[in-house]
Amino acid sequence: MRALILLGLVGFAAQLVDGSLGMAYGVTSTTLLLAIGTNAAAASATVHLAEIGTTLASGLSHWRFGNIDWKVVGKIGVPGAVGAFAGATFLSSLSTETAAPVMSLILLTLGAYILIRFTAYGLPRGNLGKPLRKRFLTPLGLLAGFVDATGGGGWGPVGTPAILASGRLAPRKVIGSIDASEFLVAIAASVGFFVGIGSENINFAWVAVLLLGGVIAAPIAAWLVRHIPPRILGSAVGGLIILTNVRTLLRSEWIDAPGNVQAIAYVAIAVLWAAAIAYSVREYRRDKAHESVEAVEDETRRTTTEEETASA
User: Fold this and answer.
1) What share of the chain is helix, strand, coil (3-state, %, to 5)?
2) Report field, pTM of the whole predicted structure over 0.90
3) Domain count for the chain
4) Can you say how many angstroms the Cα of residue 122 is from the centroid of all Cα atoms in its chain?
5) pLDDT tens sequence across 148-174
6) Where in the cell is it found (predicted)?
7) Who contacts 179 (Cβ-Cβ below 8 Å, separation ≥6)?
8) Which domain holds residue 68?
9) How many CA atoms lie within 13 A of 156 on its CB side?
10) DSSP per residue over 234-255, as a string?
């Protein structure tokens, strides 16, 4: 019972992050399932089954708040589903001993990308309003869908930063569109896992509590996306994913590191993680202060212009 409650809370927290950042439900949930000993294919299958419901709820919530560009959803969602089905069948063919560290490596890479991307650069905003082409979204969807299924998450970490980096879509619409299109990816991946491993290795009670936690969090996250600082959240989530997957790798048969080496690694990661969060907080505050100064200067210029026009 305690494990189910924990999974429900993880589902809630993961969807809260995913719905407001456009990533991390899959990597966060799968990371936890791997940490408690679930085999890789079953962990990814469990998360993707839960995501069918959470992505539907998240998509509807983002739609209500006007956070979705449906053209982007169509252009990236369909190739994403194709990539997810291929990734699910590929992962299902690997042995458990091989799949677990492979998945942890993928998740670790995604976690490092999230941490570095959001800590160092924040959110780009150039080229806003320019169209996103199929020649960009189709291969992006194929890659993100494949990584998502094989890594137990990755649709958001691959898709969201790539579209944000283009600067052509408002951040809230990037997040809403990625969350909505993930519904197609979750269905395709789930079908792929049923074909590859069947249903006997999937714990449907875990699916249910992950789904429940995610559905509860979805409307809250869709509202928070307008208010929460994504830079700080990205640094926090990236560090958590790195720490957990380094733990899995150090304890795997590939490395089997001694206890003192593991302890040193955890302390080093924790220090870097805390520094990244502190830097993100500082940069966020500096950006807000800069925006406030610019707003005051713009208002001053506007007032001066109006007074000069009136006196003339």
Assistant:
1) 80, 0, 20
2) no
3) 1
4) 15
5) 888 767 787 778 777 776 767 777 788
6) Cell membrane; Membrane
7) 18, 19, 22, 55, 58, 59, 62, 156
8) 2-311
9) 31
10) HHHHHHHHHHHHHHHHHTSTTT
